[in-house]
Amino acid sequence: MERLPLISNVRGIMLNIISNSNPNRFYHLFYGIIILTVICLTIFLNLQNKFHNCNVFDLYNSSSRNIRNSSGPPYLAYIISSIPARFKFTKSNLNNALPNYFNIKKKQSVPYNDSRINFHSSIQFSSLLLTYVDLWNEIGAKPNAELKENDWIFLFEDDVNIVNITFIERFYQQIYAKWKYKDPQHSLKGIIEQGLKMAKDDGILYLGACGPTYVQNITQVEYTADGLFAFPRGIHFCTHAIAYTKWRARTIWGAFASYMFLHHEVGTDTIARAWQLLTKTFPRLAAGNILWPPGSGHYGFFFQDRGAFLTTIG
Fold first, then answer.
1. What are the pLDDT digits (tens) for 90-125?
2. CA pair distance 209, 43, nearest whole angstrom
């Protein structure tokens, strides 16, 4: 294994500290522990950079996630909400756009008075983050008889709406003219299914995103079979509509948490974005060439309907 310059520098600094410190053996033990900790952390970060998309947490799951393909619909889906009207709104939108595609359940948001919430940060952000952590853990703990490692689960926030055919016809006329949306393979269900296959090794698929930064050359982007809808890789804001496999849901919080000492983000979406940036892990976005509403910065079929609700987290 090649010698890592950073390790040599850190060790030299620490040895210099020890040589100038009290010779008492307890001091040597203390500084020895510091050296070992820094070296281990440095090796870990260097390995992460070398593997890029291959996270240490994913290696643990590499054998299990290749055992079988994902089960098909209806997919388990959760809507995070504490307000009945918002839950009903999102559930209705999902069922209308994708009938019989989801088995929808409600996930109650963590209350603002939860003892885990740090009141020195945003209470709303903390509530949503803790709700996701609880939900990821809940999904990851499900027995294989109920949910296999490669099975997909959809998580939605309670202000989600879906771009419909009328919008495409009006604002994307060239796509609409070629889109055989009545064909099951090319319907919205068919488009999502194609995306899940593309993202099976990632274990995560964004169904909508805010202000994404795409990292691929246009010639490298994968499209649906009809060549109309793009699935670009990128760095994404927003967590309002994401699909996870069970193995990814179980490991995602550990992956996020291992990098949180390198940034100061507190929101679920910005923590995820920082992780993507630091680890060079670039998830796909379904229909990344569809912008809706116009000028909103929301891409994909699934968007946060600001016309129906304010930006507050329900």
1. 999 999 999 999 999 999 999 988 888 876 668 888
2. 33
Residue 314 lies in a domain: no
Dist CA 302 CA 102 (whole Å): 15
Q: Are residues 37 and 90 in the same domain?
A: no
Judge whether 81 and 106 are in contact, CB under 8 Å.
yes
* pTM across the whole model: 0.78
Show the domain range for 159.
59-304
Tell me how far apart the alpha carbons of residues 291 and 223 are, in angstroms, rounded to a whole number. Answer: 16
Residue with the larger pLDDT of the pair 27 and 182: 182
Q: Which two tokens stand for residue 242?
A: 């994401």
**Does the pLDDT of residue 18 top 90, yes or no?**
no
How many whole angstroms from its chain centre is CA 201? Answer: 14
Pair (37, 64) in one structural domain: no
Cα separation of 34 and 12, whole Å? Answer: 13
- For residues 245 and 144, give the distance between their C-alpha atoms in angstroms, rounded to a whole number: 12
> Do 80 and 30 lie in a common domain?
no
SS3 (DSSP) at 39: helix
Separation of alpha carbons 148 and 198, rounded Å: 18
Cα distances from 309 to residues 97, 175, 306, in angstroms, run: 19, 29, 5
**Cα angle 119-123-126, degrees, rounded to a multiple of 5:** 100
Bridge partners of 85?
A: none
Residue 313 has pLDDT above 90, yes or no: no
Are residues 27 and 110 located together in one domain of the fold?
no
CB 17 within 8 A of CB 31: yes
Model confidence at 205, pLDDT cuts 50, 70, 90, reads very high
- Please report, to the nearest 10 degrees, the dihedral formed by the alpha carbons of residues 212, 162, 104, 225 taken in order: -70
What are the backbone angles phi and psi of residue 75, rounded to the nearest 5°?
-90, 145
- For the chain, first and last CA: distance in Å? 50
Q: How many domains does the chain have?
A: 2
